[in-house]
Design brief:
Structural class: mainly beta
Helix content: 10-25%
Distance between the termini: 32 Å
Number of strands: 16
Shape: globular
Strand content: 35-45%
Number of helices: 2
Radius of gyration: 19 Å
Length: 309
């Protein structure tokens, strides 16, 4: 598998800086902030602060009271020029939450008749995990239409004994519909902080001009790229090595060596997919999830009901 997709790993403090964009007159600026706490072995969704077309209904408990499942709802089902979506989740001590989406997210083609800056389509997710909390962020795939001007950023703020399992699955263009990604721009940045120290950063910036989509040192013509980050501090070095061995055995058993690889980066277990099929990627990631989740507070995999509707 090609696994050298512009990755930067940083192990020093870094200030977070976000540029201010000029907004289109009809842009939708949506924000959603969720607070979770834990009381008597029950995780509660205690606060929902929202603005614009981004919301949740309530927390579901398909696997008991310990873990709250939350489904992000975005009725427009896509992000257009000038739109910004901001998601924030705060987990108090001991809280366990699983956040997912009912369907694919979409960055549509950017409008051409806007001033500089207006064409940007932005989604920023920020998660804060307190002591002994656990967050699973498992959204459906993100579709990047040709001509989009998209920015997707995920920032995770941890403490040494919190747990994070999260994936991002990105599909460039709609090749099955004869709509390949031939123009536009897509920027992805994933960052993990532990006690305000930046311990991991992964960034890619794809444009028609820089040829990363087709370059052998980039995506090599593949249209689906994904990463699954696992931060489980309770695992010893030996346990992480055993987990890596199990995942590598799985990769061989299902014949996925061409598309999937896994590595240990400073205590983070990172699986990467580079191929052409989002469903194949999700199936592989779920199989990894099935092996990792029991190591996190003894929890077995319980797939969200919304995935089957």
């Amino acid at each position: 598998m090609q696994n050298n997709v512009v990755t930067n790993r940083v192990v020093k403090n870094s200030a977070v800086k976000n540029s201010t964009l000029v907004k289109a007159k009809n842009a939708w600026i949506a924000s959603l902030e969720l607070d979770f706490d834990c009381t008597e072995q029950r995780t509660r969704l205690t606060k929902i602060k929202r603005q614009g077309p981004l919301s949740v209904q309530k927390a579901f408990y398909p696997e008991g009271q310990r873990c709250a499942h939350v489904y992000l709802l975005h009725p427009p089902a896509g992000i257009v020029s000038g739109d910004e979506l901001h998601l924030v989740a705060n987990l108090d001590n001991g809280a366990d939450a699983l956040i997912t989406t009912p369907g694919a997210n979409r960055f549509y083609r950017a409008r051409d008749n806007l001033d500089i800056g207006d064409s940007k389509q932005v989604q920023i997710s920020t998660f804060h995990l307190a002591s002994q909390s656990m967050l699973e962020y498992l959204p459906q795939e993100t579709l990047i239409y040709s001509g989009a001007d998209a920015v997707n950023q995920v920032d995770i703020h941890l403490v040494p004994d919190s747990i994070y399992l999260g994936w991002e699955i990105t599909c460039l263009g709609l090749p099955a519909s004869q709509q390949p990604f031939t123009q536009g721009r897509f920027s992805q940045r994933n960052r993990i902080f532990c006690q305000q120290k930046l311990i991991y950063q992964d960034r890619i910036d794809i444009t028609a001009a820089n040829a990363l989509l087709h370059h052998p040192a980039g995506l090599a013509g593949n249209t689906v790229m994904a990463s699954f980050v696992l931060y489980v501090p309770a695992l010893s070095v030996q346990q992480r090595h055993e987990l890596l061995a199990q995942i590598r055995t799985l990769i061989i058993e299902v014949g996925a060596q061409q598309w999937l690889s896994v590595t240990d980066i400073n205590g983070l277990v990172l699986a990467r997919y580079l191929g052409e099929h989002a469903q194949q990627c999700k199936t592989l990631f779920i199989q990894i999830w099935q092996r990792v989740r029991p190591l996190c507070k003894g929890k077995q995999v319980h797939q969200p009901r919304i995935w089957f509707t």
